[in-house]
Fold each of these.
Amino acid sequence: MVCDDDATMRGVVSKVATMAGLTVLAETDSATGAVDLVDRFRADVLVLDLALPFGSGSQVVRELRERSSPCQIVVFTSYAADDPSVRELRVRAVVEKPDFIRLEEVLLEAAGGAGERGVEGDERRGRVPTRVGFPPPLALSPSGLEAPSSFAGALEALEPGDGVLVVRVSGAESTPDRHGRLLAVDQVLNVARLLRVVLRVQDRMAIGDDDVELVAVLLSAGRTGVVSVWERLERAHQLATNPGVLSAGWAVVEPNEAPTSTPGRARDAALHSVGQPPGDRLWAG
């Protein structure tokens, strides 16, 4: 069973579960639906998000435990590092989104019938606090994109160690008719939703100038963090079997960069490196 509020994420998680040797019986986006479907199908494993539009993941855990359900619950959430109460949940494991590799490992163990364990040993993706004085987004779309004017403020506030990631969606170029334009936009938004779950809460993203690129600002990410985000996005895109081919470019602001030159140089370097071989993609500032 898979319970998540995002349809794209449910599809990716279902692919991971299948790769781990499990059969996905049903998917849902609500707490009530998760409890009912686990009972109806007598599911052995439930992959559960905590943030749901109707009810909460914590509520699902409590209700299943009250019913003495033998279902093994794997919490897959973006809030594991921020919510101490997650540690108190009696679940098989807590995996931080979007660590699909770790999720697959946990589901492989669940498929093998290993006993329940606590969450203390689970790996969690690091998250740094939102930077003091960093301009907040004025508004976000359902896909996590912000307006260009708001995103420009984020670019201007870059500091040494921050990264800029540009993702181009090849095959999303629109045809002249209205239908082709809508299909192209939908394809880019699909990738944006995947990128949203890969980024941390303090990171930002917007659509690039030509509408087939996504530009993301990653605070204090450094080279390792930027590369990690790109690799996770690539894997999520492959698992989701979305149309189109992704290519990326990135840049990291150097300590000696003058603040006034940082936004343009970092973004230009990232744009220039799109489609280059992996070893040639990184420019400083």
Amino acid sequence: MVPRGFAVSLVAALSVLSGCYRSTVVSDRGTTRGAFRPPTVTRINPPVFPVNPRPNQPRTENSWKPTEKARNWQHIVIHHTASNGGSVESIHEGHLAKGWLGIGYHFVIGNGNGMSDGAIEPTFRWRQQMHGAHAGVKEYNELGIGICLVGNFQDTQPTEAQLASVKRLVRTLSQEYQINADRVVGHRDVKSTACPGKNFPLSEVKSVASGWTPRFAGSSGRSISDAEKSHRLVSAGR
């Protein structure tokens, strides 16, 4: 017969092992916007919004409107992961390893390898209206909405579902926060990098934003005004 005390101890131990592991991220140092509420590290399950079956149709509501007071967003910065697959969780862990609060982007769009193809996931930075850690330039981190598509667009192109989703998201955000097309940029436009890759159709994505006025487009797909170029800062930030 098993002693009663041993049985109680065994049940308690099994309860701990079967419970959810929750680890948290330390709060921002020097953050000026209220108290930081850290996300769960091992599993982030923000709402997943399906691909718009009619991506060319205008949307009448913002599915991603945060409950927190919105920051004064001025830019949208497009990125790729430069990897074949990925997810909010895997990127979050990688950015934690850099000593950051966690995932540096505000939105991630899946390619079917790690996330559903075309799925749009807002991160804790968007839900809490926090600065980003994605541009390497202070202004674009503080006032830029970071959107990252899973994939390496130096080698391949975004999936049809990803392209439909990023257009839908850029259209909605640009209308909601009055961000015109000149301020929808690729990471390479603010930092010395190939991101979001030579095969990413940036001009096509910019065309769905408010105030789209084509100026010039080179082989890279850039289309940026001289005023925007002169407006960029050179100071790095996270």
Amino acid sequence: MTDMKFLFSRVFIAFTVSVFSLVACNPVIFESVRKIDLKKDIVFDTQYGEIIFRLSDETPQHRNNFIKLVNQHFYDSLLFHRVINQFIIQTGDPDSKHAKPGEPLGESDLPYTIPAEFNPKLFHKRGVLNAARDDNPERASSSTQFTFVQGKVYTDSMLAVAENRINNWLAFSKVLHQPENKEIAVLYEGLQKRQTNPDSLALISNRIKVLADEELKKGVLYKIPEEHRQVYKTLGGAAHLDQNYTVFGEVVKGMDVVDSIARVQTDSLERPVNDVRIISAKLIKRKNY
């Protein structure tokens, strides 16, 4: 009996040491996110097929938040609530899980934002994921909503239009962040959130635009890098979104599924007439596709 107790004690100790060793090698680095999760891909199963994508280590806050949501099964049963062919397919609204046909969607997420994580290597080429957001000056991302960029192929003249849009936004944002414009910035943000006085919002927006035009005349304008231009002119994307939304991942398999979803019939709110749902979302072993 003594020998059995001794043997059991040794086995128990060995088992305990093994468990603690595994935990030590795979610690929790964020809410429900373990170190090993960072080296996995994510698969969305839809009625059109699977979309497999990889999150970027260059955007750790977005990456960790997204893995947390997948581990919590947040995206299971959500709809693609906004679909625009040759542009994007969008999901992540928690209200979409039980939404009735034709119900407006796109205004809900979890009650926090993620700071913008812009990286010059990450741009809006075809196949990337970008974080949705409201019109906040800090360009902070929605906690849950994001898009797969389908996009289109650009010409040089189309890229010139995109650059103009980017520079107009950058100048507008700069004005809102200047200390001397703090009062007008606070007023603008308040009117944006309430959306109850469109005339006042239009007046304030026009005032900011005048100041932004002055900034454009004296500032150094953003130019889309040549290597990005070549990608936009061959693979395609959504160039006008650069510098404005955080890119945090890329599809590695299943862009044909994204294309199929992008082509579905939509209503006047850009919501698919027939629901397109994420059946399940999960982490999977990373492969070379």
Amino acid sequence: MFPGLGCRRQNILRCSKIGKGKRCFAGSQKARSMKKKHLKSLNTIEKWLVTETGNPKGLKDAFETIRNAIEDLPETVAIKVIGTLPAPIEIGDEVETIAVYSDGGCRGNPGPGAFAFVIQQHNGEVIAEGVEYEAYTTNNKMELSGPLKGLHELLIVLPAMGRDPLLTKVKIITDSKYVVDGMKSWVKGWKSRGWKKADNKAPENLDLWQALDLVREKFMQVEWMWVKGHAGHAQNEYCDRKANEVMDDNSSR
């Protein structure tokens, strides 16, 4: 469970470029069960061979190699990604910078809501994306949760790519001025007053603000950028569509 996000249904996708194509991976309990099943089968086969062959030289090492290979497999299952996104214009020539796009919304406010994020390298390669639904929430919570989950996902994805988050610059792109203004301006003042506003009251969604402030310290730099929503921005529209799709799916149940 991620700090500040509580307990929600999670559907996180990790993508990696393979040859000229692209595969995405969704975390799966089924994948973990398959690994456990294969390891159990391997142990059974090893015991049988030891009994039948008298444990010849090299047998134990061979099985240990196979066992390690299975244990090292990612606990994920492959799914197909349809469509492509353009390279992030907000990065430009910053080849080492990572772009995190997010959008969140709520129907009723409060009411059922969702957020989505997509993470790209400068060349447009999608390295992770995700969407989550919450049955009762607010618009601002969803707008804050998108970049929060995206940054937490980067802490997993970057080391797998051989990159150190503390040496990585990240740009968060969102259509929420609430998020951008908060992280660029308000948080600093709140922290100086012991996480209090000027009226000495705690900010709304304090847990999410604190979690965002904490996770951004795990990167070299996190920059916050605003884009106009529903204005044809490809990544913003993509996140908006994904968030609305998961709300539609849950409303029909």
